[in-house]
Amino acid sequence: MACVAFYNLENLFDTIDDPATDDSEFLPAGINQWTPSRYMEKLGNMANVVSQIGDEYMKGGPTILGVSEIENKSVLVDLINTPALVNSGYDIVHYNSPDARGVDVGLLYKKKDFTVLHSNSHRLLMPGIPDFKSRDQLVVTGLLDGEKIHVIVNHWPSRRAGPEFRAEAGKLSRHIVDSLFAIDKDAKIFVMGDLNDDPVDPSVYIHLNAKGDEKKITGTTLYNPMYRLYKDGIGSLAYRDSWNLFDQIILSKSLLGKDRTTFKLFKTMIYNKPFLITKEGQYKGYPFRTFAAGAYIGGYSDHFPVYVFLVKEK
């Protein structure tokens, strides 16, 4: 069995000024008073969650974890060296993105279970906007218990930008997927991330071509197991008293079916345990985040992690 997960870590910044980016909010003298003690508490909170993702069937955290809203590689180094994770054997894939705030995506993986063969980073461009900056899309190819898989980690443009920006992000992910299929028509592909759109939105449903009915998945169409969760009213973040499911893990056809001589999808879940939920006040029932209404409350993230279990016969 393997667990593949994604988690938006909600502004995992260190306390060091990076002159190349606008990280002023997350400095000791900044508006968030981002002190070393707050940073260490944030690391501990994130590690506590990561260490429990997938513990229905396996302990010590997911086999593979895509992450977003991280400032740099050093915060991931600090994360995997926390007491909760230091014995899990994680390693890191990370590239710097051109995002104005300096936030990137990354991948954590257990070295004993996954071997990285190749990785690269794909720039998101907007036609007619030469100075557009966003998060790159990270592509990692490796061997999961001997099986070749491809993981594409995303953090698409925010909803403050128009839907055309996320449409372009969906097209870029689709281009990467098609390039992988051109090499291997049976490629095992995971597209994961905070897509800032729901499974029914055009960026996902049309441009990425990710559908929600497993029985109708053919050829290079992707299967989105989050679609049914969304239709059932289950989300990974809340806004204005309604749930969205922006955090998604989408799979290629080769990961579906009952022939479990190779890894196949077994279960799709959202990690929304009670300790991750705000207990009172204006945001009661929402994910318990680090800041609320500008005040530090010492929570976790404004997103719940999402994850899938894969199984195969021994």
Task: Offer a concise description of the structure.
This protein is an alpha+beta fold and 314 residues long. It has helices spanning 36-52, 73-80, 163-183, 202-207, 226-231; strands spanning 2-12, 64-70, 90-94, 104-110, 114-122, 137-144, 147-155, 189-194, 210-211, 222-223, 237-239, 242-244, 247-251, 264-270, 291-292, 295-296, 306-311. It contains five helices and 17 strands.
Describe this structure in words.
The protein has 314 residues and is of the alpha+beta class. It has one domain (2-311): Endonuclease/exonuclease/phosphatase (Deoxyribonuclease I, Chain A). The chain is 18% helix and 30% strand. The protein is globular and about 55 Å long. The chain has 5 helices and 17 strands.
